[in-house]
Automatic annotation (TrEMBL):
NCBIfam families: flippase-like domain
Any single Pfam family the record assigns to this protein: LPG_synthase_TM
Membrane topology of the entry: Multi-pass membrane protein
UniProtKB keywords: Antibiotic resistance, Cell membrane, Lipid metabolism, Membrane, Transferase, Transmembrane, Transmembrane helix
Organism of provenance: Fusibacter ferrireducens
Protein name, as recorded: Phosphatidylglycerol lysyltransferase
UniProt gene name: mprF
Membrane-spanning residues: 7-24, 44-67, 122-146, 158-181, 235-256, 268-287, 321-338
EC number: 2.3.2.3
Top-level taxon of origin: Bacteria
Family: Belongs to the LPG synthase family.
């Protein structure tokens, strides 16, 4: 990473923190916060942090399983470390880029450093992305259907916003299904869209745009083919992904208990958190800063009530986003310094 990129990342982090502080300042009553802070159960907070580590651990396990499946040149003893490193550094870059778009390119570079070919690395990352997207979309849809009455009664004022999030992610899921079974349709759709964009002068080169689109479809086809080639392992990946998503959404329920609250089932809290995730995931802001905080108050306000919602939102964001940003950022920094020192000790003629 260049010095300029490091400064950009640092600046983005400061902006994210500043925006969060402004939002929290508007929504949190300081005196109430002080009262709530005195009653928070630290054990539950530690448990919520533990769920974040569990989330990363399962991510690493899935990347490791995919690596083992697609690349027979990687030393099996090194796969766990490669997977952990790829997960944590990828999480950091995902957290500081819009749509989490910076994670996969960095992860692909990391895999290349460990002698994983570009095609195999792409298959691993695409496979992981597809499994997660299918899981999280179906997870939220199923829970929404099972708890439809509760959602409609508690959040009737924002059902349009919730519906929009579900629709957008359902469209994404539909595209994944067509990529798996009708990739030629997706290529044809891309060509038609490119023709339209070219006609209204929104793209300069129709040929280059079409080439990129076809390349995108073929990359995803490769990842899907790898998943389809081993149904048993793919089934295991989906089970692990369901557990991973549950751990992440379960952080909110653990915070609910940390604030000495009870009476609402874990399933309902997890359902609302899943819906919130679906609603803000398409917001093109690093870490969905602003959208997540406001969305939390709207979607989970009925769970935490006015007295606790500010503290709950603060704890949730600190654990689910800012803790990850700090921990993964420090991990990335330490690895970068260590690898730079190791590289400096290797004689130049051995680097060629």
């Amino acid at each position: 990473m260049t010095r300029q990129q490091k400064w950009i990342n640092f600046t983005i982090m400061l902006i994210l923190i500043g925006v969060t502080v402004l939002i929290l300042k508007r929504q949190i009553n300081v005196s109430q916060m002080m009262q709530v802070a005195q009653t928070v159960k630290i054990g539950y907070i530690a448990g919520a942090i533990g769920l974040m580590f569990g989330f990363w651990g399962l991510e690493s396990l899935m990347i490791g399983l995919l690596l083992d499946h697609v690349d027979d040149k990687v030393d099996r003893k090194h796969i766990p470390w490669i997977a952990i490193k790829t997960t944590l550094i990828g999480q950091y870059y995902s957290n500081i880029t819009p749509f989490a778009s910076g994670g996969q390119p960095i992860q692909l570079l990391l895999l290349r450093k460990h002698k994983v070919s570009t095609s195999n690395g792409t298959a691993v990352l695409v496979g992981k992305f597809l499994v997660f997207q299918v899981t999280v979309t179906l997870y939220a849809l199923v829970l929404s259907i099972l708890n439809f009455k509760y959602i409609f009664n508690e959040m009737s004022l924002i059902t349009g916003f919730l519906a929009l999030g579900l629709v957008i992610n359902t469209i994404g899921l539909s595209l994944i299904i067509f990529l798996a079974f009708k990739p030629d349709w997706i290529k044809y759709l891309g060509k038609k869209i490119n023709a339209l964009l070219s006609h209204i002068k929104l793209i300069k080169s129709r040929e280059k745009s079409e080439s990129r689109w076809v390349g995108f479809v073929e990359e995803y086809q490769q990842g899907i083919d790898k998943l389809k080639s081993d149904p048993k392992k793919t089934f295991v990946l989906f089970i692990l992904s369901i557990l991973q998503v549950t751990l992440f959404f379960g952080i909110t329920y653990v915070i609910y208990r940390a604030l000495n609250l009870s009476g609402i089932s874990p399933l309902k809290v997890i359902t609302l958190q899943a819906i919130l995730y679906m609603c803000v995931s398409f917001v093109p802001i690093p870490g969905t800063v602003g959208a997540s905080e406001v969305g939390f108050s709207m979607v989970l306000g009925s769970v935490f009530t006015t007295h606790f919602v500010g503290a709950a939102m603060l704890l949730w964001r600190l654990i689910s986003y800012y803790f990850g940003l700090l921990f993964c950022g420090l991990f990335t920094l330490v690895i970068s310094i260590y690898e730079h020192k190791v590289k400096a000790k290797i004689p130049e003629h051995k680097l060629v």
